[in-house]
Design brief:
By secondary structure, this protein is α+β, with helices and mostly antiparallel strands. 63% of the residues lie in helices and 18% in strands. The protein folds into two domains: 2-207, no CATH class; 211-306. The chain has helices spanning 2-39, 118-139, 144-175, 182-191, 199-204, 212-247, 251-262, 268-276, 278-306, and strands spanning 41-59, 62-77, 80-85, 99-104, 112-114, 196-197, 208-209. Strands 1, 2, 3, 4, 5, 6 and 7 form a seven-stranded antiparallel sheet that branches. A hairpin with a 7-residue loop joins strand 4 (99-104) and strand 5. Helix 1 runs antiparallel to helix 2. The longest helix is centred in the N-terminal third of the chain and has 38 residues, at 2-39.
């Protein structure tokens, strides 16, 4: 009896917590773009170079490195030439000389943001951490009242942790003689651009990729890696799908899948099977990953051939 209760309630509890914190993260990230859209001036900038950044951090006793390539964006503000680092999303689609749209706050030197930025991407990605848990909760065979109350209780459980964090942050602000509120302070740190580039530093430094030829070398390597990565992981997922479909999926379940492929309007029987069978749910998830990897393979191969 106790094990049955835990089997029902623990998934609801943690799925609810994931959805709640996903929503909080979504609203926090979204507030950055909302601020610049509301108070910023939309103007034009131009990519004049790129900067490759390599970060090294220690995790579980091992050092891991990650590399990003970010555009150096030039714009004119009150007749003066200004530079800042844009965000590193879709750098493979960028090139030196490309015009980009930016938001800038007229009276703030350190508040400027590329219109197409990682915050926009994270805004959409964070929604998945809300939608997916809610969908799984809806598919669980549990009474509706529990689907509502248990996830809500997860918020109340994590509330003391949030209050402790709030208290510590408040003490820090008081000690620093900072009169701003906590959320105002968090947003201020998020909207402030710490990657303003001094003109002298840019002109004299050799740490920037300033020619199209050097940048194309970087993109060619990245595209080649993307092709190899897509092939390797795509092959692994194909093997898993084949193994799951041939050895774990019953004939009745295969018939439901075939009916859906012939007529996508027959999705309800497939959803019903997802509730009954974890294998069907895993199969659909693997097929989703396969579609993403196929798109990545085609896009990287196309860019590699063009270069």
């Amino acid at each position: 009896m106790i094990s049955q209760i835990f089997d029902k309630f623990i998934p609801l509890f943690f799925l609810g917590a994931m959805a709640i914190f996903g929503l909080f993260f979504h609203l926090l990230i979204r507030s950055v773009n909302s601020y610049y859209r509301k108070f910023g001036k939309l103007t034009k900038g131009k990519i004049i170079a790129f900067k490759e950044e390599t970060n090294r951090r220690r995790t579980n006793g091992r050092y891991e490195t990650s590399t990003t390539i970010r555009p150096v964006i030039e714009y004119i503000k009150q007749g003066e030439r200004k530079l800042f680092l844009g965000t590193n999303q879709n750098y493979l689609n960028n090139f030196i000389g490309k015009e980009v749209e930016i938001y800038l706050i007229e009276d703030k030197e350190d508040q400027v943001l590329q219109k197409d930025n990682v915050y926009k991407i994270f805004t959409y990605v964070s929604l998945l951490f809300v939608i997916i848990p809610l969908v799984i909760i809806g598919l669980l065979k549990v009474e509706t009242i529990y689907k509502i109350t248990i996830p809500t209780l997860s918020l109340l459980t994590f509330l003391p942790i949030a209050l402790v964090i709030k208290t510590r942050m408040r003490k820090y602000l008081i000690a620093s003689n900072d009169q701003r509120g906590i959320f105002e302070t968090i947003r201020e740190k998020m909207i402030t651009n710490n990657d303003i580039i001094a003109l002298d530093d840019f002109d004299k430094s050799d740490k920037y990729i300033k020619t199209s030829r050097d940048f194309k070398k970087k993109t060619k390597i990245a595209n080649l890696f993307g092709v190899v990565f897509s092939l390797l992981f795509g092959g692994g997922i194909y093997f898993l799908i084949q193994n799951l479909y041939t050895k774990r999926i019953s004939q009745d379940e295969k018939q439901v899948i075939n009916n859906f492929l012939e007529d996508v309007g027959k999705y309800q029987p497939l959803l019903d099977e997802c509730r009954k069978s974890n294998d069907i749910f895993i199969l659909i998830a693997l097929c989703g990953f396969a579609v993403i990897l196929t798109y990545a393979f085609i896009k990287n191969l196309s860019s590699l051939l063009k270069s």
